[in-house]
């Protein structure tokens, strides 16, 4: 049918490729159709190819030609827990629960609802989430469809995941890096190129949920980069602030220097007046004093100034004396206190003199011993003489 519609079109070519998952990916489809590989970390536009899926092309047509914004999209409802599976046009923002109930949703005790396909989809934590523009499928499988859960085992390095990876990555190495929090090595091994197709987890004989590890690692790397970006912005703001403060400080110093070198207008006038007075005094000092013969110099001005200074000093001293006398008269309480203190000191001195111990009476025998004279020797000497 498509070939018949495109028979008269010369600018559109129809290519049929084998149905092999995940050949619908943008990078994989670009390689299948053109033989060109999209570089790591790049897009198909980097090699001159623009890849759009059918849904995007139809939305572009409605926006450009029909002038209709994207307010709805086709959503596939499938799974054994849905009574009426099929494709529906769903408005963006419609709750998932509403779509499932409209299709005859019959949940079991441990019902799981997956947004996306069986390999690339993820389990919804609750059913009140809205439909967004990337919601292409809602899968509600029964317990028979999912099968028995299998226990995760240790990696045996079989390289089956690397053989199945459509992005030519090393999933076993990325698994170890993700599990060991080695973000730099995971980035070096191009974890960002993982399309999360789930092929590696499907073929893993140890039942390791590799896609879950890769999603968590990419989220942690994105959080680290966001934090580094915020830190760099904060550092740039701090450095800009420091530079601004340095500029303001330099400007203040420059203004201070300019103000010190160039005085204000009123200061200039005062300085000029002072210089004029100094010059006038110097001119007067250099003029010779002429005294005629028989005349005395007129020193009356100097004598009057000296007398005025003496009178001013005497007046100041008299004023100070009056102030002291007034303070003494105005404060009799202070005088009484000083007199009481003087009387107390006199009584204390008299008491100390009265309590002094009398001099010890001198014993004549002790005095004789100190001087070397003994009364017995004097008596013996007198007897012998008689």
Q: What would you note in describing this structure?
A:
- It comes from Escherichia coli.
- It is a peripheral membrane protein.
- It is found in: Cell inner membrane.
- One of its GO terms (cellular component) is plasma membrane.
- The chain has 15 helices and 5 strands.
- A 5-stranded mixed sheet has the order 2-1-5-3-4, with helices on one face.
- The protein is elongated.
- It has 386 residues and is mainly α.
- Among the domains are: 1-51, no CATH class; 70-145, Ubiquitin-like (UB roll); 158-258, no CATH class.
- 11% of the residues are buried.
Give a short overview.
By secondary structure, this protein is mainly alpha-helical.
Report the C-alpha radius of gyration, rounded. Answer: 57 Å
What structural category arises from helix and sheet content? mainly alpha
Poorly predicted runs? 376-386
Report the order of strands and helices.
HHHEEHEEEHHHHHHHHHHH
Number of helices: 15
Report the span from N to C terminus.
185 Å
Please list the strands of the largest sheet in the order they lie side by side. Answer: 2-1-5-3-4
Look at the structure and give the mean pLDDT: 83
Question: Could you say which overall geometry the principal axes of the C-alpha atoms support?
Answer: elongated
**Main sheet: strands, sense, barrel:** 5 strands, mixed
Helix content: 40-55%
